Amino acid sequence: MMLRTTVFLIIFGLSLTYCRGAYKDVLWLVDASSSVSADDHALTMGFIYNVTSYLTIGDNDIRMGVVKFDDEANALFELDDNNNKASLLSAINSISYTQSTVSSRKTMDALTYTRTLYLSIKGGRSDAGKVVIVIESGPSTNTPLTITKANDLRTSYGAEVFAIGIGSDLSKTNDELQGIANDPDSYYVEYIGGFINLCGIVPSILPKIDNETTATMLDGCDEWVEPTTAEITSTERMTEATISQTNEGLDIGAVVGILLSCLLILAILACVLYLLYKRKRRKDKKDQISPEDDIVKAVNEYNDTSLGEKRHMYKRDTSNISITPTKTMSEKDTMFTVYENLEKEVSHHITFLVDTTAGVSKDEFHQIVDFIYNITSRLTIGTNDNMVALVTFNTSPKTEFDLNDKSDKSSVLDAITSIKNHSLTGSRETHFALSYIGDNIYVQSSGMRTDAQSSMLLIRYGQSVTPTQTQFAALFLLSTVQTIYVIGVGSLMFETTERIDFFQT
Ligand SMILES: *[C@@H]1O[C@H](CO)[C@@H](O)[C@H](O)[C@H]1NC(C)=O
Ligand SMILES: *[C@@H]1O[C@H](CO)[C@@H](O)[C@H](O)[C@H]1NC(C)=O
To answer: For residue 450, what are the CA distances in angstroms to 225, 349, 382, 443, 480?
Structure first.
């Protein structure tokens, strides 16, 4: 108890020192199609510069990247290119103008490309808040797809996506702006009449990036008000702004004082909890990743080589991959870590891919089946929740059941138990199994829903017979499956006394 109190106090003290700005990865997607003039460009960069000048920038605070797009998207700089404010501001300042010859805006491609910038290899921090701010002066060439891609960012990264629409080709109620932006649109959509008005939205955008920062309207910058619907706009703003002023009978000063004190205490508490959570997340991560694992290598190579904008990239937790070799984890810790990762707010399609070669004893195999059973028994199973498939493999893979074969938990659990009497034999052709999963499990005919996250847990007792092909197969599978967990079991995998080892790629 004493110790806990002391630790708490130390963290409390630290939190006061460290809890400064927001901890977010912010990406600006800036229209650079031919309609944008040199003046427009200068105003846009001035806007980003001004917003940035109020923020706390750094590896423990905000990281920022800027992407410009017309029919192609290019990062001008990425999240980890500037780790302090001075260098970031000067990077923004030095973004030069090139008149585009292309009038089409492929905002959807820019949004897809943005996903790659959130990878850890590009400076994305998996535990940071994700903010995407799209600035457009007209609609994209494919509004439905643009909206889908913005939705993907929300689903895979929990990103907050803002849309800033400029000029007469758009409006505050434009479908595309509203579809790109998170809800409510009154908060996430900004619409202004011209680039010249960007200056006037600095005070409104800024606290949405860092809620502890405010800016006052600069002299000479005016809030843009749409001529015909001026009243509607200002009423909306008023309702937001006046909530705290409705206690007319009370002494406003005292109320504000009390509110501020409460806010301060709440903020400090939130900071402490957040720091504890962050520490735990970091620790978990450190424990989970082995740079030597062939699939981890494949992920790394994939990230290094093919930041193919045109390819689909999904959320994969690859942070710190090059730093620490994995620590062996006990079966229990492994289970909790996997479980913790699966039971998040979104539903998952989970495939267990289980090695049935002779690498382990019958007894050990039973424990592995129990392990799968235990994870599954903790999950909410159903067609609108998590769905589970089970594939076993040795020389060739075999579907034990598909995602949509079993609709309730007890039949899933029964089917898991029934693989206990499989004979353990054959050779470890992991690459066949990985391609098989991509071709047969994560397809709509097997029950895959597009709104769920795909996760796979590979449990195996040794390296595959063809490591290179396995790496390739893993690489391909990563275009469909967002998270692959690799659990190596037994002495053939690692020289450790512990039985189960765990990585997350
Ligand atoms: C940025 O700030 C400067 C003054 O610091 C102001 O003159 C300029 O209009 C601002 N520009 C934008 C686009 O906010
Ligand atoms: C700012 O946001 C953080 C995280 O959502 C929250 O914990 C904190 O209380 C907020 N601060 C204010 C002043 O609203």
So the answer is: 40, 10, 15, 10, 11
